[in-house]
Amino acid sequence: MSFVEYSETVQEGDVAIVYLGHESMMAVKVQKNGQTQTRYGAIRHSSDLIGKRYGSKVTCSKGGWVLVLHPTPELWTVNLPHRTQILYTTDIATITMMLELKPGAVVCESGTGSGSLSHAILRTIAPTGHLHTVEFHKQRALEVEQEFREHRVAHLVSVRNQDVCLDGFGVAGVADAVFLDIPNPWEAVGHAHSAMKRHGGRLCSFSPCIEQVQRTCEALAARGFHDLSTLEVLLRVHDVRTVGLPLPDFGPDRTPDPAQTPAPPPAPHASLSIKTTTPPRSMAGHTGYLTFKSPFDLRCFTLEE
Ligand SMILES: C[S@@+](CC[C@H](N)C(=O)[O-])C[C@H]1O[C@@H](n2cnc3c(N)ncnc32)[C@H](O)[C@@H]1O
User: Where is the composition biased (Pro residues) (predicted)?
Assistant: First the structure.
């Protein structure tokens, strides 16, 4: 198992996702003689997991069953141990698209936080790209490094335990894209500029507050970044369902019938069954503003030296 390569069967040392239901999953480190308790009873790793195909149903000790799933960055995002606030898949998808991430890309990121975005970046830039990620909290940097090893993506990422505003990303002139998720991104704009390839690249900064966005835009403009755009991603998921629509009753048919037979009475409570969608009654609200050096700029831009 690796987060960037699919395997057919569960092996000792894998991180598998145990799926009890859409709202109930957990990441499990598969260990010889290990056990995991669920509300359906225990799962014994040696007999119930190791050697089973990913996607299999596994029966727990109390008779209920769960599914054992191959990990993906999306499943990791909803199951990872939270050490910080994290980015979720709706924002991550937009960031990936707007930064034009693809296999082989070199990306700089700070802060690493809980590694939610990092895993999605790694899956996208594998097998030949590289992520340089900077986290100034020592324990968080160590823990995420350990996870990258366990998820077998460590060869694609360098974790640096330093302050990105003071010490930058530790690389110069290599990045196709830079991503910032720190409280004071305007202080890291100069280092983002130095990390990028000389012929340019893409930048995104995530901030929850509009005052942070304003300061970041000022710093970006002062550094020669142009065509800035800020967007907010709000997802509305509509419910697709079947509804019954009552048919109107227009009374008996009064057109003359040549056969003089009385018109049949309308069917009582006639209704039509159709598929339709209903908008959500509530939805996830604001997460943050994403400020980009806009990819809609068709000119090839050159960073000012
Ligand atoms: C909100 S979290 C990032 C979450 C991450 N994007 C994710 O999806 O898991 C912000 C992280 O930035 C780190 N941080 C804040 N300022 C920093 C700086 N100047 N240099 C490096 N890391 C910094 C914090 O320690 C924290 O772990």
Answer: 259-268
